[in-house]
Amino acid sequence: MIHxxxxxxxxxxVEHTGARHVVSLLGDESHLVRPRGxxxxxxxxxxxxxxxxxLDGYIMPGEEHVADLIRFVRGWDRRSPLxxxxxxxxxxxxxxxxxxxxxLNPRRDEIGIAQAxxxxxxxxxxxxxIVALADRLLGRDGRxxxxxxxxxxxxxxxxxxxxxxxxx
Length: 168
Prior knowledge:
Blueprint: E1 2-6, H1 10-17, E2 21-26, E3 43-47, H2 63-75, E4 82-86, H3 92-104, H4 110-120, H5 128-137, H6 143-151, E5 163-165
Parallel strand pairs: 1-4, 2-3, 2-4
Antiparallel strand pairs: 1-5
Helix pairs in contact: 2-3, 2-5, 3-4, 3-5, 4-6, 5-6
């Protein structure tokens, strides 16, 4: 299973879930300390900002970021949970968790995954650029983007509550 959380809740989420693999999607936040029990090779750090169009001084999610994410989750042994985190636990992390479930279950329906995401987190507002890049890399022919559009924008929150997204 995949757990999603904010930077502020990372350590407690890893401890609570027993996760041994972490994906961190952060921009300029350099104060990230890898959680205890997570080996360096099991911690993917993707440096990117929560934007969907170019903006001076910011790192837009790119194909290489999403390809690294897909490669990492496909290499995850699934013996313990995976935690995906971004600064607020609302956009980059939810898009990446959604993309991860799609990557690990090529036959699972995109709308079903998106609806499971919405049920798990009323605040989830997946970064559409990350979703679109994953859609293309996974050969989902626009279905991932369309599915995320059906769940709409999540409820406003200053920080999301941690949640779980099942693989099956």
